[in-house]
């Protein structure tokens, strides 16, 4: 059970972070100073993935695209949470949907932190594990082992949109994930993006029950 003190602490951290990001949008020079705190971790990821170094610069355009991506994630999350995907036999369909939602949500966070949309398109693409690694390297703070394992299973998520016969040896493996275990993990990640970016939920997307009680 999560204590009220813990919830208050998380709320204060998210609020402070949103205030910092608003300040960085006004003062891009400060953004480079803050980004330097992640420089070593980002450089290690660039080497690991052989990626072109990302230039971190927050802009109003980036913030706007970030909000659009987050809203995409929330709207498509409703499909993942729909009753027709709840059966275990729909694991592949749920994984494909989860891949898209998670990619949109994580790219929303990276955009909000100052990653360029073109950099994400070239280097993140449909690699959910990579997107999560970059996000956590930049303060996302979603260190959930089960989500990390799901991200590895999802990547690249396009593979879950294809039909494979059971006899095909190269068919992707679900890792034991079923809709009942996939959906809560993705929901928690999308909620985390909402919390740390401060983006409002899109119209028609209800607040989570725990938010309504807080």
Protein topology:
Elements: H1 4-26, H2 28-35, H3 39-49, H4 60-80, H5 91-113, H6 117-124, H7 128-137, H8 145-154, H9 179-197, H10 209-213
Helix pairs in contact: 1-2, 3-7, 4-5, 4-9, 5-7, 5-9, 7-8
Written description of the protein model:
There is one protein chain. By secondary structure, the chain is mainly alpha-helical. The protein has one domain. It is 64% helix and 0% strand. The longest helix is centred in the first third of the chain and has 23 residues. The protein is globular, with a radius of gyration of 18 Å.
Main sheet makeup: none
By secondary-structure content and strand pairing, the structural class works out as mainly alpha
Distance between the termini: 14 Å
What is the 3D form?
A: globular
Q: What is the structure about, briefly put?
A:
This protein has about 210 residues and is mostly helical.
């Amino acid at each position: 059970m999560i204590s009220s003190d813990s919830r208050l602490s998380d709320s204060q951290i998210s609020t402070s972070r949103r205030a910092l990001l608003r300040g960085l949008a006004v003062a891009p020079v400060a953004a480079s100073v803050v980004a330097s705190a992640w420089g070593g971790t980002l450089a290690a990821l660039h080497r690991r993935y052989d990626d072109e170094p990302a230039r971190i610069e927050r802009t109003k355009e980036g913030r706007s695209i970030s909000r659009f991506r987050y809203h995409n994630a929330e709207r498509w999350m409703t499909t993942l949470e729909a009753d027709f995907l709840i059966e275990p036999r729909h694991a592949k369909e749920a994984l494909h949907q989860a891949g898209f939602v998670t990619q949109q949500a994580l790219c929303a966070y990276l955009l909000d932190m100052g990653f360029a949309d073109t950099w994400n398109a070239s280097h993140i693409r449909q690699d959910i594990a990579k997107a999560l690694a970059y996000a956590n390297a930049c303060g996302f703070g979603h260190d959930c082992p089960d989500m990390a394992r799901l991200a590895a299973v999802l990547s690249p998520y396009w593979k879950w949109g294809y039909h494979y016969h059971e006899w095909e040896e190269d068919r992707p493996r679900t890792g034991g994930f079923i809709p009942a275990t996939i959906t809560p993990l993705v929901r928690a990640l999308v909620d985390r993006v909402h919390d740390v970016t401060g983006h409002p939920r899109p119209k028609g997307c209800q607040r989570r029950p725990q938010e309504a009680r807080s």
